[in-house]
Design goal:
By secondary structure, this protein is α/β, with parallel strands linked by helices. It is built from seven helices and eleven strands.
C-alpha cells in the first residue's frame, strides 16, 4: 500500500508513517519545511515539501499519483489564529480531496475532532470555535466529493503510551481522551478496511481492541 499523508510531520502522522513502514508499506509525508524531512526519513517515510496553503491543485495531484490512499492529518495548531484555521483545517482538507480526485486516488481518511457541536457555545474559546467550524465545513465538503472517505473524530489527544484498547462508534460518543499512538493504530486499521468508507466515527480510550471495536461498529445497523 502507498499512502500519502498531508501534515506528514504531525505527531499522529509520524506514528502512522512508522507503522506503515514497519509492515512494508510506502508512506509519503507532505511537509512544509525541508528541515522536517529527517524526522520522516528516520521513520521509514519519504518526505515531499509541499505547502498546502499555497500549492495549486494540479501540482498537489502530481504528488498523489500512484497512491492507494491519502490521509489528512494537517492542522494549523492552537496558536495559529482564526485565519489559518480556515486556510489549513478547512481549505487544505478540501484541496487534498480535489487533488485526490484529480489524481485518481479514491480513498481519503480525514482526522477531525469530537465536539464539533461546541462551536456555538458561548463558553468556547473563539479561536477554538473557529477550529471546530473549519473542521465541520471540511467534513461536509468531503462528504460531497466522489471519494471513498472515512472521517475519524478522536477525543482529546494525549501523548500517553497507547493501550490498544479503544471505544469507536458513530457520533455521539461520550467525550474522552485517546493517546496519539492509538489514533495511528485505528487509522492503519481503517486503511485496511474498505467497508469503513462513508463512515464518520468517534474515538476514545477504553473498551476493546482495535480489531474488535472496528468489527463491532461496522456490523452495527
Amino acid at each position: 500500500m502507498h499512502v500519502v499523508i498531508a501534515g506528514g510531520h504531525g505527531q499522529i502522522a509520524l506514528r502512522l508513517e512508522r507503522l506503515l513502514a514497519e509492515r512494508g508499506d510506502t508512506a509519503t509525508g507532505l511537509i512544509r519545511r525541508p528541515e522536517q524531512a529527517h524526522d520522516l526519513e528516520s521513520r521509514g517515510a519519504r518526505a515531499v515539501v509541499c505547502d498546502l496553503e499555497w500549492t495549486p491543485v494540479a501540482e498537489l495531484a502530481e504528488h498523489l499519483r500512484g497512491a492507494d490512499a491519502v490521509v489528512f492529518a494537517a492542522g494549523a495548531g492552537p496558536a495559529s489564529g482564526s485565519a489559518r484555521k480556515e486556510s489549513v483545517d478547512r481549505a487544505a482538507a478540501v484541496l487534498l480531496a480535489d487533488a485526490a480526485g484529480l489524481a485518481g486516488v479514491g480513498r481519503y481518511l480525514m482526522i477531525s475532532t469530537m465536539g464539533l457541536d461546541r462551536a456555538d457555545d458561548p463558553a468556547t474559546d473563539p479561536e477554538f470555535a473557529a477550529y471546530l467550524r473549519a473542521k465541520a465545513v471540511a467534513e461536509d465538503e468531503l462528504r460531497h466529493r466522489d471519494l471513498a472517505w472515512t472521517i475519524l473524530r478522536p477525543g482529546r489527544l494525549t501523548d500517553d503510551q497507547g493501550s490498544g484498547l479503544i471505544r469507536l462508534g458513530a457520533p455521539p460518543l461520550p467525550m474522552g481522551s485517546v493517546p496519539r499512538d492509538d489514533v495511528a493504530q485505528v487509522l492503519l486499521a481503517l486503511l485496511d478496511t474498505p467497508s469503513s468508507t462513508g463512515r464518520t466515527l468517534e474515538l476514545t480510550s477504553g473498551g476493546g481492541s482495535v480489531a474488535d471495536a472496528l468489527r463491532a461498529v461496522l456490523s452495527a445497523p
